């Protein structure tokens, strides 16, 4: 595959990270958390295709996992957590720890695992692809949280509610 195809694939893989970081940006997280989340998403988008490339076919032979079902369940759980946070007096931040940031980064990077398997079948340079995936996804994540902060300033907790509902529908669509 050409470099252009790899770049387009990277943008497509980054769309879920962008949309979810846009939603998380409405939670008014600190700049440090925004940077951490962007960096972690970039790191996961580097390693997940490599894992897919090297281990994916072996794992899929032994454990039939449907990544879409897993992502759907995770999105629904995150949506419910965000909706519950709206009902509390103090704002509960879903991404408050290193572990929660890693969990977020993993969920938005799962699709790059299967892309790594595909790159293995085409004989592409997975290392260059992983670097491109990493840089693009980190950038899209940072842009998403930044735009999300601007939305919350304009629309308040309504933006979080809308984001939660969108996340719920995304989760349901992954399950169907």
Task: Describe what you observe in this structure.
The protein is mainly α and 176 residues long. Helices cover 85% and strands 0% of the residues. The protein has helices at 3-25, 31-62, 67-87, 98-122, 126-155, 157-175. It is globular, with a radius of gyration of 16 Å. The two termini are 31 Å apart. The model has no long low-confidence stretch (mean pLDDT 76).
Please render the helix and strand layout as text.
Blueprint: H1 3-25, H2 31-62, H3 67-87, H4 98-122, H5 126-155, H6 157-175
Low-confidence stretches: none
Radius of gyration: 16 Å
How much helical structure, as a percent, in the residues? over 70%
Query: Which class of secondary structure composition applies to the elements?
Result: mainly alpha
Total count of strands: 0
Query: How many H/I helices?
Result: 6
Q: Strand fraction band?
A: under 5%
Largest sheet, described in full?
A: none
């Amino acid at each position: 595959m050409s470099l252009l195809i790899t770049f387009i694939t990277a943008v497509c893989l980054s769309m879920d990270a962008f949309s979810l970081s846009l939603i998380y940006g409405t939670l008014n997280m600190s700049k440090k958390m925004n940077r951490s989340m962007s960096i972690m998403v970039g790191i996961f988008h580097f390693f997940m295709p490599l894992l897919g490339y090297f281990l994916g076919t072996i794992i899929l032979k032994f454990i039939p996992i449907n990544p879409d079902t897993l992502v759907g369940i995770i999105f629904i759980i995150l949506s419910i957590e965000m909706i519950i946070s709206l009902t509390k007096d103090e704002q509960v931040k879903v991404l408050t720890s290193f572990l929660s940031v890693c969990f977020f980064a993993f969920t938005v990077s799962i699709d790059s695992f299967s892309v790594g398997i595909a790159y293995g079948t085409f004989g592409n340079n997975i290392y260059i692809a992983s670097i491109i995936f990493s840089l693009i996804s980190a950038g899209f994540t940072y842009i998403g949280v930044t735009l999300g902060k601007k939305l919350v300033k304009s629309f308040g907790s309504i933006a979080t509610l809308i984001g939660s509902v969108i996340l719920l529908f995304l989760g349901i669509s992954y399950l169907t």
